[in-house]
Design goal:
Length: about 280
């Protein structure tokens, strides 16, 4: 555009040339102002988008991020856990409290600080009585046992302890009473109660418990880690904060092969309901 105006200036007198030069300058200034305003608007929109996005996980703005975790029945050793922290996409691990009624193993019990120092978040699990137990009146006693084990392992008040419920059938009244007694006693002792259960039982159990109880649900969907981290709500249980979506799968990281279950959670440390991204 400016080249065309310059070519035409040769046919004008000097006054017209001066006027045209000033006009051209004014047009250039207006164009420059328009470009600056346009760029500012684009930068503002980009800033707003980056503010609303999550740097980790797969969620969109306004929804909690999701993080991978794993669990396995027995402690595999300090070296294996350090290698997996360094090389795997997992942020937290299950931590079995024991000996419990249905989990006599105690291999995790002196490893809390080791795992925390390595960087791991934790999912404390108490595998209490199950549907086939004859003494389901032991809810309060088992809750005290769970709290004492958690305290012995170094978990402070305010830690979430998950009662592991393995059945996929609806709970009987006696089993549901066991669960509600367990939850009430854990809460009275200064800890936060959590429930691990099959997705089909979540509503029945949730309707019988206070709103502050954390839910970790199980429903297997696939056999590998998806590219996009699923949200716990994708399990079909909207109030779940963790979801075990693949079971008993072998993976190798850092030279160590482990058989683990895959989980997704709203927290990098489900034991404290906190997101503290360290990877």
């Amino acid at each position: 555009m400016l080249n065309t105006l310059q070519k035409r200036q040769t046919t004008y007198n000097s006054k017209k040339v001066v006027g045209l030069t000033l006009g051209s300058a004014l047009v250039a200034i207006i164009i420059m102002l328009f470009v600056v305003l346009l760029n500012c608007g684009t930068a503002l929109a980009a800033d707003q988008n980056s503010t609303g996005s999550q740097s980790e996980g797969s969620s969109t703005a306004g929804n909690p991020a999701s993080f991978y975790g794993m669990d396995l029945c027995n402690y595999p050793g300090d070296d294996a856990m350090q290698a997996w922290w360094n090389d795997s996409p997992f942020y937290y691990t299950g931590f079995y409290l024991g000996p419990a009624p249905y989990h006599p193993d105690t291999s995790f019990m002196d490893k809390r600080q080791v795992l925390i120092d390595q960087g791991w978040g934790l999912l404390p699990i108490y595998l209490g009585r199950q549907a086939d137990s004859w003494n389901l009146d032991q809810g309060v006693a088992d809750a005290d046992d769970a709290v004492n084990l958690a305290d012995s392992a170094g978990f402070p008040h305010g830690t979430v302890i998950y009662l592991d419920i393995e059945t996929s059938s609806p709970l009987t009244e006696s089993f549901l009473s066991y669960v509600t007694d367990w939850v009430s006693e854990v809460e009275s002792r200064g800890y936060i109660a959590g429930i691990y259960c099959y997705v089909g039982n979540a509503s029945q159990i949730g309707n019988a418990l206070p709103d502050n109880v954390q839910f970790w649900v199980a429903y297997y969907n696939g056999s590998s880690l998806p590219t996009t981290i699923p949200s716990p709500a994708d399990s079909g249980v909207s109030f779940a904060s963790a979801w075990q979506f693949v079971g008993d799968t072998s993976l190798t990281y850092g030279g160590f092969t482990l058989d683990v279950d895959f989980n997704t959670s709203n927290y990098t440390d489900p034991s404290t309901e906190s997101v503290n991204v360290k990877k």
